[in-house]
Amino acid sequence: MRRWRASSAGRAGCGRTRRRSASCSGCAGTTSLPAGSRAGFFGLDVYSLWDSLRAILDFLREHEPDRVGAALEAYRCFEPYAEDAQAYALSSSLVPARCESEVVALLAELRRRAPTGAEEPGHGSGPAPDGDGLAPDGGGLERLAAEQNAEVVANAESYYRSMVHGGPCSWNIRDRHMVATLDRLMDHHGPEAKAVVWAHNTHVGDARATDMASAGMVNVGQLVREAHAVDGVVAVGFGSYEGTVIAGDHWGAEPRVMTVPPARPGSLEALLHRALPGEEALCVFPDPPGQGDWMRRTLDHRAIGVVYRPRAEAWGNYVPTVVARRYDAFVHCDRTRALTPLGREDEPVPGEPETYPTGV
User: Fold this and answer.
1) CA dihedral of residues 348, 354, 358, 360 (deg, nearest 10)
2) 54-62: long-range contacts at Cβ-Cβ below 8 A with a sequence spacing of 24 or more?
3) Alpha-carbon dihedral of residues 249, 251, 255, 260, nearest 10 degrees?
4) How far apart are the first and last CA of the chain?
5) What is the DSSP letter of 206?
6) Runs of H (alpha helix) within the chain
């Protein structure tokens, strides 16, 4: 039986940190196992359009040079925007589907059966690995990585094209892409595979237990529960009453340590602080939760993502939540300390496109 666990850990979902690096060290400890039994570390998001195009070109030039043409057509279509996602989004609002046909052609080309020899084991490290070589070797992972990069390009193009129109469409494209990526990884690794999804609460917690549902939004937690409930899905949320966090005050800002003020009165975090002052706790919710207790009430629940604005605490930063429906368990830390980002000196390109419509 497959086991799925969605886990939220605040800032760690949007950048590499020392705590997250420690979890990667555990992955590295499985390298002595057979290829099919090793742990891997994979990315799920769409924010790598240009990186993915370059990775596809590298793969095709090495393994399937007769197929490079479709990738070059897509790359040339995006080239005038100088890796500026906002410029592409604004341009596509004037000329709809500006690069759509090119990325659809590229995706179709990558989905065709690979020539003999393109799936030899030991070539690659899997779709969107975290740069540490932690994904298992072999088993066609290098071709899977190329195909996944094509999916990233296609969904990122659709995401940026839709975000200029507002509404839930761009958000839903992004989270559906994450779940489709997860499904492909699970299918690739077989029926005994297990996965932990590391993301912010806004992606992990079931959207149907929040006001996201009334806005027409879905998320990873909801979609995985709907598709894989019989496989054993456990959604774990995370929150704190006060402390510090590393975030930016807008997209593209340098991350910095910010003070998280005491939670809003009446919120989930304030309730747990009052019940457990100075403590840490793991709350596991019964199924179904008891009637009339705090787990079934709609409470404000603080949301801290890549972008956080402490000054907005009085009127923003909180999501109305029925906690026992949103999560299966919840980790509460009364006071948290900001994580330390790892250096970026090992990254081959300066960074990802800087313009995104949300802060998580």
Assistant:
1) 30
2) 54/349, 55/145, 55/146, 55/149, 56/106, 56/110, 56/146, 56/149, 56/150, 56/153, 59/142, 59/143, 59/145, 59/146, 59/149, 60/146
3) 30
4) 31
5) -
6) 18-28, 49-63, 68-78, 85-94, 100-111, 141-163, 169-189, 201-204, 220-228, 268-275, 323-326
What residues contact 114, with CB distance under 8 A and at least 6 apart? 63, 64, 140, 143
The tokens of 173 are what?
């494209």
Residues in the chain: 360
Residue 147 burial by CB count (10 A; 0-12/13-18/19+): exposed, middle or buried? buried
- How far is CA 15 from its chain centroid? 10
Which residue is listed with tokens 């929040």?
210
For the chain, the C-alpha Rg in angstroms (whole number) is 21
- Distance (Å, whole) CA 290 – CA 112: 52
For every one of its 360 residues, what pLDDT tens digit does the chain have, with 9 covering 90 and above?
455 565 654 332 334 444 554 455 555 556 677 766 778 888 899 988 999 999 999 999 999 898 899 999 999 999 898 888 888 888 887 766 678 899 989 998 888 755 444 443 333 333 444 433 334 444 478 888 999 999 999 999 999 988 878 889 999 999 999 999 999 999 988 888 899 999 999 999 999 999 999 999 999 999 999 998 877 899 999 999 999 999 998 877 888 999 999 999 999 999 999 999 999 999 988 776 565 588 889 999 999 998 999 999 989 999 999 999 999 999 999 999 998 877 655 454 444 433 334 445
- pLDDT for the residue numbered 5: 61
State both tokens at 189: 């690794």
Peptide bond before 288: cis, by omega within 30 degrees of 0?
yes
Token pair for residue 63?
């393994």
Q: What are phi and psi of 298, to 5 degrees?
A: -80, 115
